[in-house]
Amino acid sequence: MNSKSIKIFCPATVANVNCGFDALGFALEGIGDEMVFRKTKTKGVTITKITGEKLPMEAHENVAGVAGNAMLEAVSADFGVEIEIHKKIRSGSGIGSSSASAAGAVFGINQFLENPLNNLELTRYAMKGEALASGNEHADNVAPCIYGGTTLVTGYDPFKIIALPPMDTVYVGILHPHITIKTKEARAILPKQVPLADAIAQSQSLASFVASLYEWDKELFQESLKDALVTPHRKQLIPHFDEVKHISEKNSCIAHGISGSGPSMFCLAFAEADIENYLTESVALYISNGLKVDSYSSRINGEGCRVIG
Amino acid sequence: MNSKSIKIFCPATVANVNCGFDALGFALEGIGDEMVFRKTKTKGVTITKITGEKLPMEAHENVAGVAGNAMLEAVSADFGVEIEIHKKIRSGSGIGSSSASAAGAVFGINQFLENPLNNLELTRYAMKGEALASGNEHADNVAPCIYGGTTLVTGYDPFKIIALPPMDTVYVGILHPHITIKTKEARAILPKQVPLADAIAQSQSLASFVASLYEWDKELFQESLKDALVTPHRKQLIPHFDEVKHISEKNSCIAHGISGSGPSMFCLAFAEADIENYLTESVALYISNGLKVDSYSSRINGEGCRVIG
Q1: Nearest residue to B108 (alpha-carbon basis) of B249, B308, B277
Q2: Residue B261 sits in a domain of what CATH number?
Q3: Does the beta-carbon distance from B154 to A194 stay under 8 Å?
Q4: What's the burial of B72, exposed, middle or buried (CB within 10 Å: 0-12/13-18/19+)?
């Protein structure tokens, strides 16, 4: 594609997914940003419009700008882009808001290249934007945003991502209580040392999760979606976490946990009604406690960023 | 099968496999015990002969006896078995000697049942024998001995084993330096607490290993076969470990580590010559240092225990 203007959808994403701290992530269908790209003769990224959130218009202060410029420079592009960013994903919600902008920028620019980059290369440049937001280059949100589906970051040296088999039949609920958790704070609350037994349990859970997708073993899938290392510490940052988890269990949902570093929570179920009930009851709980909350019902997005116009 | 006498092969096994402490194991083709079973009217297990190792003949003191009796009782068998055990796997070598006897016992008895048990049930009874040898019921050796190939113990509650995709093209070298490491000592040397970063790295390695088998991604397979948690501590129990590891790397082998709790080491390569060179040089190293060592070259056993007569 080499048209002068395109519009894309960039999905929200859930990282960590209980057993896969700093490794797993999946993309959502029900919520995402839109971005519009126009090819320009002027080199570099120019942000022309941002709606939905108050974010820097200066390219070097904006994750989309940083990611886009990193890529344009790396491929020695003889053109530039104007970008409009229409945010639907709230900043600081924990469902990959900055990642969607970073991933969207590189995905959008890729549409204008004669030799498009592959998903791994795109992820690498998107991480440059992600670093502006979070302080370090990590791929657990940008990878699923670009690849779609569920991704496993196997390591950074060498940098590798595995697109795991689809979990098409899963329904997702997202709850975003309106509190602020800084990524730094969420990191600081983690212990430096953990029991060896928990470390072993976690490695078995993540390996089981991966095997469960390849085998599509629903029982193992459910059993593996637990977290011995991180959630027990971070959940105290999220009011009513245990009550909401209890609501998810009561409604036969199969997994519940913190999305990324929070405050959003994700919930998985094999039946849409279970998610609807989980969301309804949990929203009521937060409202009755005087807290604002957003909720989203979604399927898994199998495609990642895509052109929509 | 319901004949009165059968002979079986029960393979040696490598557990842990670097990234999969207490979870992974694979079966060897090149070394294993033989056992002969005769159906008797007398109930229970009678050990009639043991060659190759000095082991208890009393059923309740012998892993094969304990495992076999646990199974015969559980299925309310109206018969018993006489068992001859011909050990080729040295006790205390770290390549599943007691597991082979325990797994062989239940596999052999299963041949006489009208409603044979499945592999998971067999593993469960074999673990009863394993517990006699090691003090606790674990499946990381008995599972690959029964299933063959490479197995992942995903957990004990619920107890589940995944037979992973084959790694048929891999060559294995085993080195057994003649030193004694008690399983208890190998456990005691492990730290109670480990760095969170190492725990995360380990979970990514084990998950990557599993994904690499399903994708048969040779690069990822090699990258994943490392150990952040256990080997750094246990290797000090094995003289010349680092030198032998260096020999494996120099010969283009793809992984090297401790088999189970040692003292045997395993080495993997994609070419048979690499394993031969690794074994030759490592054996020479031990001999020049005045230590006895056994060495074995093997393929992966894809079948587990099997009837051979």
Answers
A1: B308
A2: 3.30.70.890
A3: no
A4: buried
Q: Which helix (H) or strand (E) holds A2?
A: none
- Do the beta carbons of residue A229 and residue A189 sit within 8 Å? no
Contact across the interface for A203 and B162, Cβ inside 8 Å: no
Encoded amino acid at A47, one letter: I
The pLDDT tens digits for A251-309 are 999 999 999 999 999 999 999 999 999 999 999 999 999 999 999 999 999 999 999 99
Q: What is the mean pLDDT of chain B?
A: 95
Q: Are residues B156 and B211 in the same domain?
A: no
Q: Do A56 and A83 form a contact (C-beta atoms < 8 A)? A: no
Q: Rounded CA gap, B112 and B40, in Å?
A: 11
Amino acid at A265: M
- CB of B187 within 8 Å of a chain A CB? The answer is no
Q: How many residues does chain A have?
A: 309
Alpha helices in A111-190 (DSSP H): 119-134, 142-147, 183-188
B214 and B78 within one domain = no
Domain count, chain A: 2
φ, ψ of residue A232 to 5 degrees: the values are -55, -25
Q: Return the SS3 of B161.
A: strand
At residue B263, the pLDDT reads 96
Segment B57-93, tens digit of pLDDT? 999 999 999 999 999 999 999 999 999 999 999 999 9
Catalytic residue among A130, A150, A151, A231: A130
* Residues β-bridged to residue A172: A268, A298
Distance, in Å, from the CA atom of B274 to the CA atom of B162, rounded to the nearest integer, reads 30
| Percent of chain A with pLDDT strictly greater than 70 | 99
Q: Which residue of A has its CA nearest to B197?
A: A192
Phi/psi-derived region of residue A49, left when phi > 0, alpha when psi is between -120 and 50, beta in every other case: beta
Give the separation between CA B182 and CA A71, rounded to whole angstroms.
Answer: 55
Active site residue A151: no
CATH of the domain at B45: 3.30.230.10
